[in-house]
Amino acid sequence: AVVSTQSTGKQDIKSQQMNLMDSSLNNLPHIPADHMKQLNAYIDGINTYFHSHPRPLEFILFNYAPEDFSVADVLTIYKFIAYAGLNDICLIVEKHVLEAFRETDHGDIFKMAFAPHLDQIDDELIEIYKTIRDIRPVGDQNTVHVPKLTNSNNWAISGKLSESGSPVLGSDPHMDISKLPNIFYESHYIGEDGYKIFGISAPGAPGIVMGRSNHLAFAITFGMLDMSDYFVENIKDMQYERDGTFYPLKERVISVAGQDCYFYETKDGHTIERSLESVKTPIGTGRYLAAKYALTTEADATVLNLFFNTVTAKTVFEVKDSLAINILGTNYALADSSGNIAYQQGGNVPIRKTSTGLLPLPAWNTDNLWQGYLSSDDYMSVVNPPEGFVASANNHIQDPNKPNVATFSALSHRVNRIKQMLQSKEKLTTEDFKMFQSDTQSLYAEQMIPVIAPYLGSSDIEKELVQWDFVTTQESKPAAFFKLLHEHFRRNILLQFFAPERTDKYIKYTAYPLYIIVHKIVESNNSTLLPPEVIQQSIKDALEQYKDEKYGEVEKISMNNMIFGGKLPSWLGLDRKDMSTSHCFMCVKVGNPRYSQIGAPIYISQAWRMVTDMGTNVLETVLPGGPGGNILSNFYAREVDMFMKDKYKKIEL
Q1: Burial class of residue 344 (count of CB atoms within 10 Å of its CB; 0-12, 13-18, 19+)
Q2: pLDDT digits (tens, 9 = 90+) for 261-273
């Protein structure tokens, strides 16, 4: 906050409210000795480098001198990515639910879209919501610089579906790619006895996030598991209530950007969330929102399994069980050189007695509090399925015979398209996998256009839309028109229920609630929820705005330097602006222009692409950006053009 922007200062308030560092310090005695050895080697390397080298240019510009890095810092980075970058989406949806019932008369549209998870809401609970003080608006969630795996694809096939007879795995995690350098960097490790591994890592978080060794390939998508909740706390004279008895709050006073801020926590780990102005003064009597994160000694310590155990394992059987409990909430696709493939779900989902999650409940009734956590056996695990493949794309994955692990998920169009392609040929190769990662067939458009088609007129572009093959190319005019039409369609649907300001906030600040609401309304085939006038108005709005454009003229990617944000002259070469693309909404080759929680434009897409055949020692990858963050280096943006042209480089272990 001291050396950067106001948005980072807001983010510092968010991170201090979460109080992850205390949790990390408590974890230190529980870290296995072999993991601690690796962590100490990592931080020693970082600290030695900074002590023996000149400060990087960015540090000099901001007059920043880094403190020594520690193991607790590493754990806190993992947790911040987990809860501010991934599982924060659950809190954002809960905040939308709360605001809708508290401030509008149309909360029932959320009840319909997220059924049955909001069925227990009633007038008494709504009245409680209306008494909450100092609520931080959705637009102030403030995690603009935190990596978010909000979408991703992974899949693996067994040897019976591959031309080589060996398993083949593909991975493309989806994150904001509008910044240079990429949040990931590629690492190549060579160990004893010919052991080698290549993959991606994140700064400050040692280990390989996704990649492959001589023996094992592994890839993650975000599982959308519900591992965080809001509660309503009743505070009186610096104390919180439990079943009629009041207990003292823990108070921390932290300086953020030179301003004292006051943070509060209950003994059971509920962190009070207040507005950005309110945190500058001590807490008063009243009702407040409090966030609860699934931080436990067991799960926190096992986060290192994700990045260390996958590196050393030789088969899926050696590693999959250790991935079941973790703080990220993951879908793992695994493949090994012995011919096995596996899917492993993992998380740390709490046991809820009075709800399924998604609904902020009064914490003063202890029946509403978490009752522990699910066991490793409660998560889906599949090894060598008879169909010969595993795949995930943030879609709903739930064993019907096990406890509920999620309250919402991404729509199923991407994973359904992946499954179509995996079953499109008798035998597949890595070349096929690369084509799959570049696929722009939209099953979403294929579902939506029949709903809209009866109301289309006779203009050329409307006729082209009806005849469109649902494939997005840079030359496609119907793809450009559908993009525009869909933007008006979703806005006009929401305008039936919410004022323009609230509607635009939903569109600007978060995707999942909006997409789910629109999808459920379309699926309902209910003319009350989707009257013909809404469709007709959306077509009219799109026609008035459409300028006979091709898709590549309206869908463009800009990648700007993370520090300077595109504000410096283009001749300096720090940015890559307005690059035409065929990336598309709801496609496997996803492209989703959105806004961060502070309203900054971002672009969610494939932050890395990787395919590998386990019968070889070769990976093919591309990283939008480059392998170096130094703006003066030739490596700074070396792979941007490769990425835009769907090209890959070959890496031999």
Answers
A1: buried
A2: 999 999 999 999 9
Q: Supply 115's token pair.
A: 């059924």
For 287, 394, 454, the CA distances from 280, given in Å and listed in that order, are: 18, 38, 56
Q: Are 482 and 449 a contacting pair, CB within 8 Å?
A: yes
Separation of alpha carbons 486 and 484, rounded Å: 5
pLDDT at residue 598 greater than cutoff 80: no
DSSP result, 274-299: --TTGGGS---SEEEEEEEE---HHH
- Contact status, residue 408 vs residue 111, Cβ threshold 8 Å: no
Q: Is the pTM of this model over 0.90?
A: yes
SS3 call for 268: coil
Confidence of residue 9 (pLDDT cuts 50, 70, 90): low
DSSP 8-state class, residue 325: B
Do 300 and 192 meet the contact criterion of CB atoms below 8 Å apart? Answer: no
CB-neighbour burial class of residue 377 (10 A; exposed 0-12, middle 13-18, buried 19+): exposed
Q: Tens digit of pLDDT for each residue in 518-529?
A: 999 999 989 999
- Give the number of other CB atoms < 10 A from CB of residue 510: 22
Round to whole Å and give the CA distance between 645 and 649.
12
DSSP 454-485: GG--SSHHHHHHHH--SB--TT-HHHHHHHHH
